[in-house]
Amino acid sequence: MTASIGIDVGGTFTDLVAVSLDDGTARSGKVLSTPHDQSLGVEAALRAHAAAGDVARIVHGTTVVTNMLLERRGARVALCATRGATDLLELRRQDRASLYDLAVHHPAPLVGPADVVAVHERITPAGVADPLTAAEATQVAEQVAARAPDIVAIALLHAYAMPEHELQLAEAIRRRLPGIDVVLSSDVLPEIREYERTATTVCEAYARPGVRRYLENLSGRVAALGMPAPGVVSSSGGMRGAADAARHAASLALSGPAGGVAGAALAARLAGFDRALSIDIGGTSADVGLILDGEPLVEAGGLVAGVPIALPRVLVETVSAGGGSLGWVDDGGALRVGPRSAGALPGPVAFGRGGTQATVTDAHVVLGNIRAERMGGDVRLDAAGARAAVARLAATLGASPERTAEAMLATADAEMARALRRVSVERGIDPRSCVLVAFGGGGPLHACALAERLGMTRVLVPPHAGVLSALGLAVAPERRVGMVSVLRPVAALSAADWLRLADEAAHRAGGGAGRQASANAAAERRIVARLRYRGQGHELEVPVLPGDDADRVGERFAAAHDRRYGFVLELEVEAVSLRATLSSRAPALHLQRAGAPGWDAGAMVDAGTPLDATVRGPAVITLPDATLRVAAGWSARALPMGGWLVEASA
Q1: CATH 3.40.50 in the chain, residues?
Q2: Angle 401-424/443-454 helices, nearest 10 degrees?
Q3: What fold characterizes domain 74-206?
Q4: Which residue has the higher pLDDT, 540 or 650?
């Protein structure tokens, strides 16, 4: 079988799915993650579940960048900023980390004040007000060299419109420090908003050396197995080759979760749903996403570990509520669950790998929700150990083990339900109009309880639910994104202007190959404009089609504004930027149908249950790579494509 391989590295397990390029069928496997070096887990998964001669491509989802930002262990960066604007990272947007708690502070910037170099130059929206002289560029380069950085970031005022000063300064720094990598804000994010542009550029510089080392190490391990170099999925859900990904480190901040939402969108479409909420519950965290019109919602950016990254990304809300989340009692005597996690090592007590504190997984074992003798990665379940751990926690609370286990699950459910509301209700989406796509090792266990909290009546548990993120990676298309600044009234842009801007953005996306890249390397070219009413502080993304003129684009924006906010304004519409996305054709997937060769009905339902029967709750259905809990008042039926549709009883 010639296969496309998807590998998702989670906090507890590393999942692999191989999709055949011959017939579109899929097979999967799990190994334990290796947090100290994720590439070891990837290598182990490939050794265990793939053969060198059968692998056509490998697509990887990684948390390397997220972990780097959380742990603050990136490169030492020297930042060059316009004199008078060197404190942008400290000032942020002058908002509080918590509105009412004055003891809470924002995370420290990735670059401290001592490593920021002021540059005597100034560009305004009207043009160059203070030229950057050769002497000044040389002096700045000397100041940068004195700081001995690993990498240099340059973010000068209004460089999105005029990058000449950044290019001149970069050349001077490279002359002074041959071989050093210099990151320009005009390359990373050519768009207005100085703070977000500076922060994103610094994040790119901070993460790039570490990402490069990781991908070189991973590529070497994969090459030693006789397999092709791996690609990496970016936060926007598309795949980049390893070398290209190493030059776009900031775009990998949500690499793994983006693959999960893409997999959920694929499963929802195949099941006939075009609107869904997704919940991916792993060992360490739970990731929540939103799917509209059959596609993951992509936003312009957001915070990752307190760092603003203003690059396109699949909407993902992450909370610390996974199967490994630890139960504990706070100083007030209240039961808490998370954010601390047992992770892959030692893991839940039930995994028998040295864990001693009760986790959400242990609570499920106590309540009989998890019955499998083995978990992924050849982990044998220690039910007695799990019960003993929950009993110790229960003794502290003065409750029974069963009551404590139920309270642990309810606490975790409340946290995840809040995340589901944030991605839906806060965006004007009624959760009751959506199906809940539940996956990951714990998603099907919590799905009914979460749906009830949001008033939802349908849950889709897709085939390969326990490894759906890896499945989404395996079928991810290659995708490149390019952006250009516009900042002009829509009425001033003709159809020829839109075409020119689209070609310029596609040129950036294609790495300089322009229209030829769009024609040869991509099956799809998608153009999106970021528009606003003049004076607004936020934008809406509106598609731009070939032949569009100002009237069509303006009408499309008004319709989008009315759908989102319920009103339109009689104001001038302004185009802030234009984004081009070039996508290849994704591998085809044909999920196994009931009765097909290789279909194992015994692995899909409890022993003795006919495949076409309706399973009424309360019941537990053991899946090949997860467990589905059907709550009282709910019923589940097997789908022809595989997986289950769980519905609330009328």
Answers
A1: 74-206
A2: 70
A3: Rossmann fold (3.40.50)
A4: 540
